[in-house]
Amino acid sequence: MKNWFTAVLALVTIVVAGAVVLRQEIPAQAAPALAAKTSQASLKAFDPKVDALLATMTLDEKIGQMTQAEQGELSKDFGEVETLFLGSVFSGGNSDPSPANTVQDWTELYDRLQQRALKTRLKIPMLFGVDAVHGHSNVVGATIFPHNVGLGATHNATLVEEVHRLTAKEVRATGIQWTFAPCVTVPQDERWGRTYEGFSEDPALVAELGAAAVRGLQGTDLADPLRVLACAKHFIGDGGTVWGTGKPDGPNKPRFPLDQGDVTLTEAELVKLHGQGYVTALKEGVASIMPSYNSWKGVKASASERLLTGLLKKEMGFEGFLISDYNAIDDIPGDYRSDIKTSVNAGMDMMMVPSKYKEFYATLKSLVEAKDVPMARIDDAVRRILRVKFAMGLMDPKRNQLADRSLQASVGSAEHRAVARQAVRESLVLLKNDKKLLPIAASVKRVHVAGVGANDIGIQVGGWTISWQGKAGPVTKGTTILDGLKAAVKKDSEMSLMIWRLGGTTLLTPFMV
What we know:
Layout: H1 2-19, H2 37-44, H3 47-54, H4 59-65, E1 67-70, H5 80-83, E2 88-90, H6 103-117, E3 127-130, H7 148-154, H8 157-172, E4 178-179, H9 203-218, E5 232-235, E6 262-263, H10 267-274, H11 276-283, E7 288-291, E8 295-296, E9 299-300, H12 305-315, E10 321-322, H13 336-346, E11 351-352, H14 357-369, H15 375-391, H16 414-427, E12 446-450, H17 457-461, H18 481-488, E13 494-498, E14 500-502, E15 505-507, E16 511-512
Parallel strand pairs: 1-2, 1-11, 2-3, 3-4, 5-7, 6-8, 7-10, 12-13
Antiparallel strand pairs: 8-9, 12-16, 14-15
Helix pairs in contact: 3-15, 7-16, 8-9, 8-16, 9-11, 13-14
């Protein structure tokens, strides 16, 4: 019983730590070297094959490779995959297959889409992306691992790599080959609502664990059928925006305090504090990167040629492709045509345009024909995308590009859940032990557990779980803190649940009477 009470109090502290990051000074040591070209060179090795294919492609086929649509926005027969030569689709945080959110339905969805892609003239397979950010977390029955704030608390790179290896396996069990992870943000203000998506406020720890996550997801060979394409995000500075500069919460509404705001650091400060996760991810061979919603000195990252082409591609040596965030180009000042022109010319390679994919396709084609977007920029973008597809083995005519259904038994398996439990145990953080209350005496007979989250698995697993921002209730199977205590304490101990809310914040605080 002592161990369980200790664990519960520790769980309380990590819940608190997820919302309140302890302030610390940035380490004074020199930042790691910026270049990561050695590990990225393997992608360029495919350029002779890529260039041969590129020479056979029409402008329509090239633009199709640069277009990513949301699967739920396609027609029922997915005909646009063929007519627009779509190179990629994705499922948003609230987008599931029909008729149900099961492993089988996800697999059928993937196979149907891929079969459409394989019917195009050049038979270039598509990439399917999901936000598998703490397990294959949109899928009912998948293993749910701790969020990055919890994994950061483990300080265990080996464990973080294993968590992401198993995540990759469960994603591949549904056929999908790309996850928008890891998030290597370095949160500097605990009031930011997405703080929990970062490993730490310490750039050195983010660099270490971000690299481990990429190794777990991609392995040492992108063609490994048990691994997935990783996507480091959000480049760059999403955890360092200035209070009061966030995105307006709709027309004529106030701004969010921090989210999608502006970063005012110098470039050297930006790289030293917010760039180290990308340095190490690049060294591990990460082959896709997602630019951020935030601005740097008033310019949206998705519109910044200095950040995307100058810093990331030229100086840091990134040879993979950039994928924009969800409708991110819409936030660039100007109309949609100028948004596309600005972002593509700045260096964006693939656009996540959930519902406006037809408009994007037609507009980009028009921009190229008007010479507002150089053909060389289109070829560079498509070359980068095809580079990754070749490296992943997607262009291998002998390889089956449909789902390997033999992997489905691994989804939510006892082996994977055991690693998730280990990650939870190692993520527990005891902030203090006043008056040496711990370990709690076995003689305690009555225990109160306070807070709605104490008996709600939906709240405990948090955002990006079945739905985008998560929700209360039994969204997935699991043992709540209260259930775990009841199963562990002595039969003659009294257990009760008290729900406390102060100022809209739930207090989850076990105490003894």
